[in-house]
Amino acid sequence: xxxxxxxxxxxxxxxxxxxxxxxxxxxxxxxxxxxxxxxxxxxxxxxxxxxxxxxxxxxxxxxxxxxxxxxxxxxxxxxxxxxxxxxxxxxxxxxxxxxxxxxxxxxxxxxxxxxxxxxxxxxxxxxxxxxxxxxxxxxxxx
Length: 142
Hints:
By secondary structure, this protein is mainly alpha-helical. It is built from 3 helices and no strands.
């Protein structure tokens, strides 16, 4: 191999190495940004669920007592039965709301779409450069 060919190959290799370093740095920055964004979204939902749960707990106690006593009187002083009915009813409503919140969390996109797309683009560029190096090498060998 002469200096001209070796120089151009080493230049391409250096450019490729520099490109890969830049790609990795950019993708790490993008992944960090996406993790921060996703964490913020999840934190928001968790905080909302906790806050709404606390507010509901404060308001539910007097209503629960009222419902148990009122239903107990309607059921001929069977307060145990009224407590059971009211408890099951509130558990059903609370469980439904909890399930709804859980499904919202499951539907969040946690797959780092920007990072994945960027990596796919950079892999395509890197493959193109490697093909150029292979073609250059084949042309010089032949």
